[in-house]
Amino acid sequence: MEEEKAQTGEDTELAEPTLPAAEIPDGALSIVEEGATPNDDSDDLAAIQGALDRASKEDKAVYIPSGTYRLSGILMVDGVSLLGDGANQSILMSTNPENGSIDVEGDGAVLSGFAHVFEKTVERGNGANDKNSITVRSATNFKIENLKIDKSSTAGIFVGYESSKGTISGNSLQNTGADGIHITNGSTGIVVENNKVQKAGDDTIAVVSYEENSQTTQDITIRNNDVGYGSKARGISVVGGENVTIENNKIQDTEMAGIYISVEKEWGTRNVKNIVINENTIEHTGTRIAGEHPNILVYASQGNIDDVKFNGNTISDSVHGGIGVWGNGEIGNIYFDANKLENTKGLATNFKSGTIHSEGNIGF
Length: 364
Description:
Strand content: 35-45%
Structural class: mainly beta
Radius of gyration: 20 Å
Number of helices: 1
Shape: elongated
Oligomer: single chain
Distance between the termini: 31 Å
């Protein structure tokens, strides 16, 4: 999905996260004891990868003591726990903007209690996953928690390759070149909760299924996240997917729709079915003047969208309208129950397509 590219190399002043340290188990392998040296100009990639490889063989965790460690290339975490002293203490810095992802594979991997930052970034360009901050590749039963992610040339956290049964929780992401958190390629059973996403270069949290994927991305829960803050596209989006729950999130100050449910001919995405959007707060989104997105947009330029339920959401301070449902694709049943529209600029609702069911709403 192509949106306005993030600016790279610019300084931003964002709220500094306070994220807890990981619990370090007895017997964990320290990357310092394995040869990494903090707070200097040396490359620590080989030492840290060596610690991870040894830990995999010995069924141990890997510990990142306080300090900044430099990575010249991709780091692979295969079913291992990589744990730090907290995101403001244990810092992994990628020095190659084209080749800096932390790749998560295997079963039971855990990333917790550290920061991953890029020393510099490049344009999003081809969107290669090597330029993500974290790339989850066919992993199962993984956890990504209490991390600070600052800068990436593409996505912050990318979950793909039919990964399953993962949790992404309590992380702070900012200044990503593409989506903050992107779940795609038929991944299933993913929970995204209690994250903060600021200044994403595209959507803050996105569920995406392309026609070229062998499976639909499905069974995704997105809850209790706080997102927006100058992000360059949508807040939370489902662009091809099934069985997605979006609840109790706070979404504000995105350039395009705060919540976006869509099937896009432009990008060849799959159908959308059974989406539940409960008790979210969507405030002052769709700020891009040329975009003209309402706070909530349901849009189909091909395919089918059906069985989308909006329950108890508060939608306020729009720039280009409250809620829109339109497009040349087939839009079926869209339900609005007990939602509240406040301070709407533009049309409160603009229902051009679909079978709209509306009950107990305020401001419609």
